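Entry 14. Ran structure prediction on the chain below.
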Amino acid sequence: MITCIEDLRILARRRVPRMFYDYVDSGSWSEGTYRENTAALARIGLEQRVLRDISERRLGKKILGTPARIPVGLAPLGMAGMQSADGEIHAARAAFRFGVPFTLSTFSICSLEDVAAAVDEPFWFQLYVMRERDFSARLMERARAAGCSALVLTVDLPVLGQRHKDLRNGLTAPPRLTFLNLCDLARRPRWCLGMARTRRRAFGNIFGHVRGVDDMSSLMAWASQQLDASLSWDDIGWVREHWDGRLVIKGILHGDDARRAAEAGADAVVVSNHGGRQLDGARAAITVLPEVVSAVGDKMEVLFDSGIRSGQDILKALALGADGTLIGRAYGWGLGAMGGAGVECALELLERELSLTMALCGVNDVEDLSREHLVASTIPN
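Output, structure tokens:
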């Protein structure tokens, strides 16, 4: 019986090959920030209120102008198509069936064109600006052609944080057929059968779109050289030259950076530490949220990401001023556990938990959530 996101994680661990399960369920270095993201959310207390009519609760609101059944969107998840065959397609379909936005990663297995052909609604596209700027420009052109309604520019990965599990596992997509990998795959026939039935097993947005990249070896060599350590605020102007739609800057952990994002013309920021996958020792994302909300006021939307495992976590972020939230691991585990049905299950769990928590806090509408619904002594400064 699936009763919470943790149940989906346990099931995904059984069904997904180790290297791809570890890719989702890991952080950088000691994984201290990864753990602290959830611990900091857990430390925030809730104020229970009684004898209020909570019979008609309203959980929906708009995120970046898009109506959402609950204030949640699916964050970009690299290699989602390795959690389950055609994972990005199934996740997008599940998101739209449920009624929330979906974001496709640059490092997805299914391409922009694959997802656009599979769904009828516009989705968001997450962009890394690469050293090969022509490629990044073409990605934005492809995203526009695919009907993407927002560009989510991730800015907290100028270099790759050291992720020990990925290094030990020799992470590649598809997995190298070593003896240890073959033994691991043999224990997961369901996953193997799904992969055998699809042609999508490599990075769909890159393979076939970069000159000189025509096999997995050349693809991995190209990707390892493309993160751009010179990326700066000046480059936001270059992005704006190529993208005139909604722009979201993801990876903000400081009020000053949020102000710079607003000045640069972004429509929204995402308070995120990349799920603890970049700078180990960075502040838990929820502790930064009030600072960012205070810094930008009503100049732009503020979304929250990193550490959400329950509807209560969503409520806490909204009460601290977030306009919406994004989930990555929570739906990634659902995808690995049960494919598209697991993604819908994750969203249904979060919806039920959010609704119940609102009821016990005496709140009818997510738009009414505020600090008064949190225990004051536990609110991050």
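The first strand starts at residue 61 and ends at 63. Will compare against last week's run tomorrow.
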